[in-house]
């Protein structure tokens, strides 16, 4: 067994939380700048690194993503960015910032009746993206 819940409850709890977090999750928020449009399928939302010639800004979208691998986090963050922007009617996202941030350490310990002690800690990091949800007019 990976851990004994009776002998090491804190460590088992930490392992469980870490296992759940490795599955991956992403959250998005936005600030409306322009007018919301009819929703666009995420598959039709294009990622831009440079501004297109003619576009309107709909909103600023921020995404935070955590996952099992760095690449998995980034893929999940971009997918969430496109999904959220599309729900606002954007057919493009103009990436402004991308990086990895830390939210501190998660840890816990246990002291056995024999007097021995153990401690488990892990740094919690996530991918953060900020972009403009845009509507690109005929390129």
Task: Using brief descriptors, characterize the structure shown.
elongated; 139 residues; alpha+beta
Total separate domains: 1
Largest sheet: 5 strands, mixed
Spatial ordering of strands, largest sheet? 1-3-5-4-2
DSSP summary, beta strand count: 5
Total count of helical runs of at least 4 residues:
2
Helices and strands, in N-to-C order? HEEEHEE
Q: On the 0-100 scale, what is the average pLDDT?
A: 82
Low-confidence stretches: none
Helix content: 10-25%
Strand content: over 45%
Distance between the termini: 59 Å
Q: In angstroms, what is the radius of gyration?
A: 20 Å
Overview of the molecule:
The N and C termini lie far apart (59 Å). Helix content is 24%, strand content 45%. The model has no long low-confidence stretch (mean pLDDT 82). β4 and β5 form a beta hairpin. The protein has 139 residues and is an alpha+beta fold. The protein has one domain.
Question: In brief, what are we looking at here?
Answer:
With 139 residues, the protein is an alpha+beta fold. The chain has helices spanning 9-23, 70-87, and strands at residues 25-32, 46-48, 55-66, 92-111, 117-136.
């Amino acid at each position: 067994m990976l851990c004994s819940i009776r002998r090491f409850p804190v460590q088992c709890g930490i392992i469980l939380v870490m296992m759940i977090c490795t599955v991956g999750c992403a959250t998005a928020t936005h600030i409306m700048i322009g007018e919301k449009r009819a929703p666009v399928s995420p598959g039709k939302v294009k990622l831009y690194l440079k501004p297109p010639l003619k576009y309107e800004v709909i909103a600023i979208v921020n995404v935070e993503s955590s996952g099992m691998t760095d690449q998995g986090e980034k893929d999940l963050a971009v997918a969430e960015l496109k999904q959220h922007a599309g729900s606002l009617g954007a057919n493009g996202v103009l990436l402004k910032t991308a990086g990895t941030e830390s939210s501190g350490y998660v840890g816990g310990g246990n002291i056995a009746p024999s007097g021995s002690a153990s401690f488990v800690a892990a740094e919690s990091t996530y991918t953060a993206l900020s972009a403009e949800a845009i509507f690109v007019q005929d390129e």
